[in-house]
Fold:
Amino acid sequence: MKENNTKKTLTVWYYPGCTKSISLIQKLDEFEVNLQIRDLKTKPLHTTELIEIIEKFQIPIDILFRTQILEISTQLAMCNNNEEKIELLISHPEYIQRPIIFIEDRYYIARQDAEIKFFIAENLLD
Structure:
């Protein structure tokens, strides 16, 4: 466990049944952090909320999509602008990459074990 007087606050977006999300949350439980978990299935994002997050963290919208799935990449290709892409994510929260970790002014898409290890080393280890 990390010895620290001030706990860091992490927000994690996940989708139930996502094994990467479950693995990440289990790993983060080993550290003394304030963990805020957002289940995108039971508490989906609102359009204004997603726009605020994209702007605050300067996230390129296309990386939020799970494009490795043909149906999703096909629908994404049919979008003419970012507003349509945002509506697609709002309509289909299962299309969002996950888990996504937000900490301070940064975000991490933690799909791979290497990304999770990098996040922990960069943010939680002394």
